[in-house]
């Protein structure tokens, strides 16, 4: 959408940004550098209205994911491949005349295009170029600090009101930071765009209007887990996808632009799922088993890796694989947590068990590696401890972070890009923050606690390139008859907070640090 001069400017910005050596981000896009010249990609470029589509369709154009070629596995779907939707307006390349649905999609796309032109005209003014570059560099080189309480800037409530007790089950930013994905008890995956104001004028923006989902994707049964494709970039629609696992259903690969299923991996009722570091493999957790799929080959073919290596030792207690995390240091290591309260460390290419650690009071439900891969954080259900394991000395505990978890649901936590701060939600609606550099004590003192929701905060996620924090809340509630009689207002007895909220964090720029 930008003219030749604009594209030339973006190229210069990208080249300059690559020379910056102390960026605290893992993935830098032109949109992040040029101050949202193309922030509409992955957002306003969506050609579809909110959908609830569960119709299975094959990969589009043999989906050209990096280093992945799916054409060999889709020879039987040539007709569907030839009828690929154009990312510009959703029209079929194999059709000579547009249909009524295509015209409606084009009209929606034209509305988005007008918004994009307005954004470009505001951002590409010559007099604002230097200031925009300076502001963007400062954001890209930020270091969050929790010296002040985070400020809520926007959120979403109405999207989750149509279903009784429609509590959320976490939230996850896309790798490029253009959108955020949520899961809720109505078996829906919802996609929300990051508001444009947070790209272009982050420092001065205050309270923004409520966000609305741009896509809705419904699974047939309870959703167990979901994860983004690790190399996702809104500039390449083929990479805009994510996986989800649900009860009695195969693993689904969803298109984040259309809301449709691209393909399925025939592995049913897996409790956890995750891509490997480059996205070429998908790990699925089962009872005493991890199944590994080739991302480029949907279907039934997979590699089965038993987690029980020796029935005569402690490894026999390694049960249902409830969560999986991949080491970011490209070492081929991945960790598997289980409901048997243990965490196993495995290595590619065969998935050999390297270490097995135990220490939780409840089944392990979430795992996160630090950016350098030296630390592994684990948390469990009805377990107040987040344990920090030293990967250099398997089994050694560096820290224990105390939170409040009085539920069996999965309670997420996250680490900022520098590895300094760990954040987690609590059962009482608060968010706790720990500074891992502040103390060497085993029981790490809490740095800050603030009220974020009126209900259990089960989801939390740092934005990959902006000082933003997302939180999600809600839980299943059971109201007893005696409790209802003691409450004058029935609404008070059933009060809950099922919402997604975005928080602006305080930060230091490169010059200040």
Question: Describe it for me?
Answer:
By secondary structure, the protein is of the alpha+beta class. It has a domain at 143-477 and 495-508: 7 Propeller (Methylamine Dehydrogenase, Chain H), CATH 2.130.10.10. Helix content is 15%, strand content 32%. The strands form eight sheets. Strands 19-20-21-22-26 form a five-stranded mixed β-sheet, with no helix packed on it. Strands 2-30-29-28 form a four-stranded antiparallel β-sheet, with no helix packed on it. The radius of gyration is 23 Å and the shape is globular. Mean pLDDT is 76; it is low at 1-64 and 66-128. One of its GO terms (cellular component) is Cajal body. Residues 76-100 are annotated as: Disordered. One of its GO terms (biological process) is Cajal body organization.
Percent helix, as a range, is 10-25%
Biggest β-sheet description: 5 strands, mixed
Total count of strands: 31
| Widest beta sheet: strand line-up | 19-20-21-22-26
CATH architecture of one domain: 7 Propeller
Q: What number is the mean pLDDT?
A: 76
- Model regions low in confidence, pLDDT < 50 over at least 5 residues: 1-64, 66-128
User: In the CATH scheme, what's the topology name of one domain?
Assistant: Methylamine Dehydrogenase, Chain H
What is the CA-based Rg, rounded? 23 Å
Q: Name the structural class.
A: alpha+beta
What is the 3D shape? globular
Query: Can you say what the CATH homologous superfamily of one domain is?
Result: YVTN repeat-like/Quinoprotein amine dehydrogenase
Distance between the termini: 36 Å
Family: Belongs to the TCAB1 family.
GO molecular function, one term: RNA binding
Pfam family, one: WD40
GO cellular component, one term: Cajal body
